[in-house]
Amino acid sequence: MVLELSQQQINLLHGCLAESIEELHDEVLHTDGREMRGELREKLHQLQALRRQVEAMLQREQQPSL
Q1: What 3-state class would DSSP assign to 37?
Q2: Which domain of life is it from (predicted)?
């Protein structure tokens, strides 16, 4: 599935991901249960991968067309 996003939507998505990653990172650090911490860490890695994809989209948008 391919989503068509406007530049404004991409910027908003990037900001939301950054905020969510920060909050989830704090949650991982303060969770006592080993199993729960592992699950949270996996979610954190998924969000970070998604953020990298969004950042790549932002860079492509900023490059001038040839």
Answers
A1: helix
A2: Bacteria
H or E stretch including 10?
Answer: helix 7-30
DSSP state of 23: H
Domain of 22, in residue numbers: 7-59
Q: Determine the distance from the C-alpha atom of residue 41 to the mean position of all C-alpha atoms in its chain, rounded to a whole number.
A: 13
> Is 26 a domain residue?
yes
| pLDDT tens-digit map of 11-63 | 999 999 999 999 999 999 999 999 999 999 999 999 999 999 999 988 888 87
Note the pTM of the prediction, 2 decimals: 0.81
Indicate the residue type of 55. Answer: E
Provide the 3-class DSSP secondary structure of residue 33.
coil
Alpha-carbon distances, residue 31 vs 23, 39, 62 (angstroms): 12, 11, 39
